[in-house]
Amino acid sequence: MSKPGDAAAEPADRNFVVVASRLPVDRVDRLGGGQEWRPSPGGLVTALEPVMRDAGGAWIGWSGDAGPAPGAFEADGLHLVGLALSEAEVRYFYEGFCNATLWPLYHDVIAPPQFHRRWWEAYVTVNRRFAQAAAEQAAPGATVWVHDYQLQLVPRMLREQRDDVRIGFFNHIPFPGYEIFAQLPWRGQVVEGLLGADLLGFQRRADATNFLRACRRAVGLTTKGSTVRVDDPGGTREVQAAAFPISIDAAGLTEIARRDDVRKRAREIRQALGEPAMVLLGVDRLDYTKGILHRLRAYGELLHEGRLGPRVVLVQVASPSRERVEAYRTLRDEVEVTVGRINGQYGEVGYSPVHYLHQSYPREEMAALYLAADVMLVTPLRDGMNLVAKEYVATRYDEGGTLVLSEFTGAADELAGAFLVNPHDIEGLKNAIVRAATASPAEARRRMRSMRRRVREHDVARWAADFLDTLRREPSSSQPAGEPEIS
Ligand code: G6P
User: Fold this and answer.
1) For residue 264, what pLDDT is reported?
2) Which one of 249, 287, 383, 459 is the catalytic residue?
3) Which residue, 111, 118, 114, 110, is CA-closest to 101?
4) Which of 103, 301, 396, 420 is the most buried (most CB within 10 A)?
C-alpha cells in the first residue's frame, strides 16, 4: 500500500473513475498504535470491487470519519482517492441531509424526513468537492460512474467542468413516487443535478418511471420512452433513465461456501446454537427500512402459537449503522427491548429463541451463517435491491434452505422462488414463514434452484457490463422510435 498523498498533484489520466460516498476501505486503529486501511463490508463495495480490479480505475470516496483527507493511495491493488469531511459536514451532510432527509424520503417516508437549509448547503458543498476530485482524476474522454443518493448533484457539477467525459449515475436505493419526492424543497435542483449524467440507472423499472415523472413535474421537461431531452448551453442532449438491477459476485460467494473450513463453521454454528430443530436467519444493517421489528413481532407470535414446533432459533445479525442519527438510536432500543422480551417470555435455561448479534462479520462467517440456516428472512418495508437475499441464494450450493422475501425489495422482481410477503401484514408474514419452514425438501430445492440460476446468470459483472455498455453507446441508438412524447 503506498503512502496517502496529494490527490490534486495527480495527473488526470484515469479512463475509468468511480465516485461513491465511501471508499471501499475503512481507516482503523492498529493494536500497537497507528492506523491502517481494511476492506470495508457493504453492498456497494462487494458489488464494485471485482469490476474496479479488472478495469484498473480510480475510486473517489470518503474515508468514513472526520479525520484529515487521505488523498491518493493504493490499497489492495486499487487506486483510491480519499476526500475529507469536516466534523460539521459529517453532521449536516452525512447524518443530516443524506441520512435524515434523503434516506427516509426515498424509502417511502417510513421515518419522517427532516428538511433543514443548513443541511442542504452542506450537501451542495460536499457534492462540489466530489465533482472537483472527479474532474481532476478523469482522463480526456474518460467514463465516470457516480453512485447513489449522497452524490446526486455531482453529474451536473462535473459536466459543467468537463463536458468531454461520459457520465453515468446509479441510484442504489428506491426513487420515490412524485407525491413523496415533491416534498423535497430542493427537488428541482436534485433532478437538474442528476440530469448532468448521460445515463441514469435505477434498481427497478418503477424507480426509473418515478424519476421520469419527476423530470416532467419538477422541472417541466419532456420525456419520450426512457429518455429525457435536456437543453444545455452547449446544445440539446438525450439522457436515458432505465433499470439495471444490481447483483453480487455469485461465483465468488459459492466458492467461499464450498470451502471445508466454511462448511465446518456452519456445523459448529448449529452446534453452538444447541442443535436446534430449525434455524431462521435475519441479516441486516440495523435500519428502520429493514422491517426487523415486524419480523420479530411475527416470530414472537409464532412462538406463542407453537406453530414452528419446539426448539426453533432465530439468529438476527443487525450490523451497526448510522448510530448518531436519532431514528437509528430509537430503532436499536426498540429492537433490543423486543428481543429481550421474546427471550424472557419463551426462553428456558440453555435455550434462547433469539440470538441477536449487533456486529459485522467477514464474508466467510456470513457464508457459514447462510449455510447454517433453514429459512432466511428478508422482510424490508422498502429496499432498493437487498443483496443479502442474493448472497444467501448464491451461498446455498447445496440447494437447501428457503427464502422469505418482502415484495417491497428490488430482489422480489427477480427471485421468483422466494416466499413473497407483505411485511406489514403480520398474519401473512407468519403464514409465509410457516410455509417456508415446512416446505418439502423437493419444493425447497426446486425453488432454490430457480433462484440460483437467476443469480448466477445475472451477477455483478453482468450488471456493471450492461450499465457501462449502455453508457458508452451512442445516445441515438437508445432512442425508442415509436414512443410518444410526454410533457
Ligand atoms: C446503503 C446505501 C449505500 C451506503 C450503505 C451503508 O446500501 O445504498 O450508499 O453506503 O447503505 O450506509 P452508510 O451510511 O454506512 O454509508
Assistant:
1) 98
2) 383
3) 114
4) 396
